[in-house]
Amino acid sequence: MLRTVAPPPHPPARPARAADPDRRRTSARTVLRCVLERGPVARSTIARLTGLSPASVTDHCARLTELGLLREATAPRRSGGVGRPHLPLDVDGSRLVVGGVHVAVPYTTVALLDLRGRVVAERRLPHPDTEPVRVLERAADGLAGLLEQEPERRPLGVGFAAGGWVDRAAGTVVDHPLLGWREVPAREVLRARTGLPVHVDGHARALADAERLFGRAARGGGSALHLFAGNIVDAAFATHDQVHHGPRSQAGAIAHLPLAGGTEACPCGRTGCLQAELSERTLCRRAREAGVCDGRNPLHVVDAAAAGHPVAARLLRERARMVGRAVGLLTDVLNPESVIVTEIGVIHRPDCLAALRGELDPARAETVTPTSFPESVLAVAGGAVALDVLYRDPLSVSPERI
Where does the record place Pro residues bias (predicted)? Predict the structure, then answer.
């Protein structure tokens, strides 16, 4: 005999049912971020920290474990030494990875990152030429080579980052003046070559997301400014756990802001533009003119300073002071709670960090720190684009990728 069940007396309205998937995704994201920040952590602690019910936490943890994002930690915790031991959960960094592609002016960095943003494998690919499709196809092939060396790993997707104007929604590099790229369909080319989901963003915003997820200074949802000073100079601003993009992702384009004390001629026709003054190209040219080194690699200037070359050290400190002025200019407008700087001298030399901070008032100077990823900043920039998407919507992970 079939048993029938009467419908509930007051079925939920259509809007409530429609909201359930969004609510479920939001809760899954909250659980995964809690484990990322606190793990290994017990389910009961997740419930207390997130405000979700124990049953909801158990359900989400089971689903995230099925997707390969979480795992039970090996060492159980007992409650008072009695009863069933608590099995804390942690982010599973052993199986799933994302690919990272960062296109710089002299080379492309390809990398694999685990779910905690740690670099598993990395390779630099010098540019024989900068024709965009060939650069991107070489990057895709480089990723394939890294995956062949890590056969136990499964890729979830690829993140692409570059300087200049990168439109996240369109998946294009709209304008990279130093490479000569215009309207390059980076997402389309990489997706066709890799067969993986591809996500695209500018490298300053990507590193702001990396700091927000995995870094030291910008976690917790406060406001943060990230300044990137390489060959390209740009910035990103995050607040309430969101990095600001603006229409067509144009936010952070600071290359032609005037920098007090700047003397460098800019291709735009003005003098003292921020990028012209702070670009690594300018540092290397000044180092060559001073007889410090004859190359175009800014690390050679750092190496010379470490070997005791006084002019190399002076050039790095002078650049850091100008970076400090740029920080002052931006913080006067944005007033962030923390400032993260990616700049080669500040990364490697305490005297450069001190020189930068010396351009700021003491209260602001205390908020400035170097990047959290000094040895792998470009690899992390690429991978962070894909990891940001994962941590915003973990339920979007395809079981086919596990």
Answer: 1-14
* Rama region for 291: left / alpha / beta (φ>0; ψ in -120 to 50; rest): left
How many whole angstroms separate alpha carbon 229 and alpha carbon 308? 24
- Close Cβ partners of 332 (under 8 Å, ≥ 6 residues apart): none
Question: How buried is residue 64: exposed, middle or buried, by Cβ count under 10 Å (0-12/13-18/19+)?
Answer: buried
Helices and strands of the chain, counted as H and E runs: 14, 15
CA distance 111 to 98: 8
- C-alpha to C-alpha distance for 139 and 203, rounded to whole angstroms: 16
- Specify the residue for token string 């923390």: 338
What backbone phi and psi angles, to 5 degrees, belong to 219?
Answer: -80, 155
Encode the chain (402 residues) as per-residue pLDDT tens digits. 334 444 444 444 444 444 467 899 999 999 999 999 999 999 999 999 999 999 999 999 999 999 999 999 875 555 555 545 568 999 999 999 999 999 999 999 999 999 999 999 999 999 999 999 999 999 999 999 999 999 999 999 999 999 999 999 999 999 999 999 999 999 999 999 999 999 999 999 999 999 999 998 767 668 999 999 999 999 999 998 899 999 999 999 999 999 999 999 999 999 999 999 999 999 999 999 999 988 889 999 999 999 999 999 999 999 999 999 999 999 999 999 999 999 999 999 999 999 999 999 999 999 999 999 999 999 999 999 999 999 999 999 876 666
Q: What are the E-state strand segments in 252-357?
A: 338-343
What is the separation, in whole angstroms, between the first and last Cα of the chain?
A: 42
φ, ψ for residue 96, nearest 5 deg:
-95, 145
Residue 107's nearest CA partner among 233, 228, 226, 231 is 231
123: exposed, middle or buried (Cβ count in 10 Å: 0-12, 13-18, 19+): middle
CB contact burial 6-39 (16+ within 10 A = b; e otherwise): eeeeeeeeeeeeeeeeeeeeebbbbbbbbbbeeb
Task: Please state, in angstroms and as integers, the Cα–Cα distance from residue 276 to each residue in 87, 263, 269, 270, 272, following that order.
Answer: 55, 9, 11, 10, 7
DSSP string, 367-400: TEEE-S-TTSHHHHHHHHHHHHHHHH-GGG--GG
Please check whether residue 380 is in contact with residue 157, taking contact to mean a CB–CB distance below 8 angstroms. Answer: no
Conformational region of residue 356, where left means phi above 0, alpha means psi within -120 to 50, and beta covers everything else: alpha
For residue 344, the one-letter residue type is: I
